[in-house]
Amino acid sequence: MATILIVEDDPVLREGLVYNLTRQDYEVESVGDGKSAVEKARLMKPNLIILDIMLPGMDGFQVCRALRQEMTCPILMLTARSEEIDRVLGLEIGADDYITKPFSMRELLARVKAHLRHERFLLSKQNPEAAISPASEILSSGNLSVDLGRMEARLDDNQLILKPKEFELLVYLMKHQGKVLSRAALLEKVWEWKYYSDAHTIDVHIHWLRELIEEDPKNPKRIITVRGAGYRFEG
How far, in Å, are 22, 156, 170 from residue 208 at the CA level? Predict the structure, then answer.
């Protein structure tokens, strides 16, 4: 059973989240402030964290930054703010996703389900038999190669350290080399978000990939921006 930690200082919303997630057969714990969140996460080691930004004491950004140094589980941030800088900052300090209040419970449950599914896929990498499977598919483009079975990417002989979503995005781009992919399509195919249209998640992850695989990230040759349309992987 997947375990989820909810960090939300609004008791009504917190109780609603606990109720709805428990009904989905998740094991749920909840706290109402940042300091308690860090302490509970260290003890609980949850499979996923739902983290509000506006918290008493430590805010959500501080909590996310602290926990990212110790654990890799998905972090879904909740925010009542609409400013772009807050959303981008959350992603840059290690959050995997964010959702702006007010939100539909259906959307949140869909996001939680998708992140937990990807987390299980990542953990399956630890299976030694899967890692040496002869059926493992290899994607190659020049000095860049991706081993789908091992969930590893290499540039020349150097292994790249990729977050799960960075890896999945790179794989999808490489599998569709030469095709223009819109941000909406990438959100639906890689993130499995059908209710979400914000482009900043894609832009931030593309930026991270370029930092790793481009010789000059400011003048990319592999992942090309197609103005008004999306991105195209050239290899």
Answer: 35, 18, 11
User: Is this structure's pTM higher than 0.85?
Assistant: no
pLDDT digits (tens, 9 = 90+) for 178-198: 999 998 888 888 877 655 556
Q: What is the pLDDT of residues 141-155, one digit of tens each?
A: 999 999 987 788 999
Residue carrying the six token digits 């992850």? 205
Q: Return the pLDDT at 91.
A: 73
DSSP H or E segment with residue 212:
helix 200-213
Last residue of a domain, one of 124, 156, 183: 124
Q: Under DSSP, is residue 44 helix (H, G, I), strand (E, B) or coil?
A: helix
Provide the 3-class DSSP secondary structure of residue 203.
helix
**Res. 66 pLDDT band, cuts 50 70 90:** very high
The letter for the amino acid at 184 is A
Question: The domain spanning residue 228 has which CATH number?
Answer: 1.10.10.10
Residue that terminates a domain, selected from 73, 94, 124: 124
Segments forming the whole domain that contains residue 28? 3-124
Hey, which bits of 69-217 come out as E strands?
A: 75-79, 97-100, 138-141, 144-147, 152-155, 158-160, 180-181
Q: Tell me how far apart the alpha carbons of residues 124 and 151 are, in angstroms, rounded to a whole number.
A: 10
Separation CA 107–CA 196 (nearest Å) = 9
CA distances from residue 9 to 32, 104, 151 in whole angstroms, order as listed: 4, 19, 37
pLDDT (tens digit per residue) in 118-141: 766 555 554 444 333 444 588 999
CB of 53 closer than 8 Å to CB of 86: yes
